[in-house]
Amino acid sequence: MTSARLVYADETGQIYDHPYLEMAGSSGGGWQRVDESYLIPLPPGSELFLLPNRLPVGYDRSERQFLKLKEDPNNPKQMVQAVAAFMAPAHTQILTAAYQSEENVPVLPLFSYTAVGWKGGQFLAAGLRIDPLPRQDIDQFDLDKLETRAKEALAHQRHNRLIQHLGTCALSYGCPAAKNYFLGRWEAPLPTSPQCNADCLGCISLQDDSQVCASQERITFVPTPEEIAEVAVDHLRRADEPIVSFGQGCEGEPLLQGKTLTAAIDLIRRQTGRGTINLNTNGSMPYTVAQLRDSGLDAIRVSLNSAREDYYHKYYKPRGYSFADVEGSLRAMKTGGGFVSINLLTLPGVTDEEEEVETIIRLIDETGIDLIQMRNINIDPEWYLKGIGYRSRGRRLGVLEMIERIRNAHPQVKFGYFNPCLNPG
Ligand code: SF4
After folding, report:
1. End of a domain among 107, 129, 151?
2. pLDDT at res. 10
3. Residue whose CA is closest, atom 8 of ligand 1?
4. Which regions of the chain are under pLDDT 70?
5. Are 76 and 185 within one domain?
């Protein structure tokens, strides 16, 4: 077990390491000790969050028990609060932060809350780098260059509403994909849909639950195929390892704009065969997926919080489609010869439960998934577990053993975080 120490914050927000309590983590709502092999230096670009009204929990080796820290050891009588890490992109959490919430606490905002400790003069997080690609690493972004490039594009292409929208995404919301578009590299976003046919608990673009707020505005218009193609063709022709992706955090479900996407893909592929056209989606409409594949769509990424239907339905609250349709979309793309990823919204304790892992392995058997993108689910863990009606169902493998188990069952399946560029030519 680790000798990393618990970190906590005082009521002013100052963060300290505890004189002797060991850091702890949480899995599926249960506290656990942290194995040294789970820890990495907190990645650059990560943030530390204070968790108000939540008591930090550490492990007392001498008492051999978990302890809730009720007051600041440096300043007794002063209240304390728990601390968690929001890890930088391309990193997957192995344990979430361990804490004891007070009664009726406000729900935490839509971020992930990874266990963090202190050792050897640095913060350590319970996670792993799941994708080596530096696409969203903080040291890759020259913000002055970005601002110059974005403002030039916005001035020259006033007629294109999509480019104006991406300007806000890059310069106001700090969207890494929109930034990479203006910097002329890697994956560029093509948001198209104001509507959605699901009502996810953790939707980041539209929240009707008053307890949490959406972290970004949803697009309010459907760009024309010409506006989409202008963004895409320019990017596919000149960018390094170019990908253009429908289905972004600032929109609803792109499959609902099937006709526009088909026309746009046709326009794009008439002008360039370079790069990859990808669709991030909830996978709700297999027939439309097959049509898009026929019109030239190269890859698809379907988001899942779980491969277990009951947890899927409780999270996505699908309107007019079912989990069978999602499986149908994966199959339609694969049988059409396309590249298939799932965007596995990961929460330690749920995602690595043996029953979940066996269900994911079966889903790969039946649909031919090529890549599992492991994204930390951005949601208050306690609120999420309650929202999906989570009940522990059997052994938890741990995130590292989960990956191993799937690799052993399907050696061809890759793990990562980013959509691949299939044809960088
Ligand atoms: S599928 Fe996407 S846009 Fe639709 S509700 Fe879920 S997170 Fe929001």
Report:
1. 129
2. 96
3. 203
4. 210
5. no
- Measured from CB, residues less than 6 Å from any atom of ligand 1 are 196, 198-200, 203, 205-206, 252-253, 282
- 300 falls within a domain: yes
Same domain, yes or no, for 90 and 193?
A: no
Q: Which atom of ligand 1 is nearest to the CA of 251?
A: 3
What's the pLDDT score for residue 275? 98
Which domain-ending residue is among 105, 129, 153? 129
Token pair listed for 136: 């969203």
CA–CA gap between residue 342 and residue 375 (Å, rounded): 10
Q: Which is the closest atom of ligand 1 to the Cα of 197?
A: 4
Angle formed at CA 312 by CA 311 and CA 314, multiple of 5 degrees? 65
The residues near 128 (Cβ < 8 Å, ≥ 6 apart) are: 40, 91, 92, 94, 399, 400
158 with 176, same domain: the answer is yes
Q: Considering its fold, how many domains does the chain have in total?
A: 2
DSSP E strand boundaries for 99-236:
99-101, 116-119, 122-129, 185-190
**Residue ranges making up the domain that contains 366:** 138-416
User: Cα–Cα–Cα angle for 266, 272, 276, nearest 5°?
Assistant: 80
Q: Tell me the torsion sign for CA atoms 57, 117, 393, 104.
A: positive
Q: What is the pLDDT of residue 214?
A: 85
The tokens of 90 are what? 């391309």
Pair 98, 175 in one domain: no
* Contact in structure between 281 and 301 (CB atoms under 8 Å): yes
CATH assignment of the domain containing 350 = 3.20.20.70
pTM score over 0.90: yes
CA-CA-CA-CA dihedral for 304, 27, 103, 379, to nearest 10: -30
CA end-to-end span of the chain, whole Å?
47
Tracing tokens 């700090």 back to the chain, one arrives at 174
Residue indicated by tokens 């656990």: 32
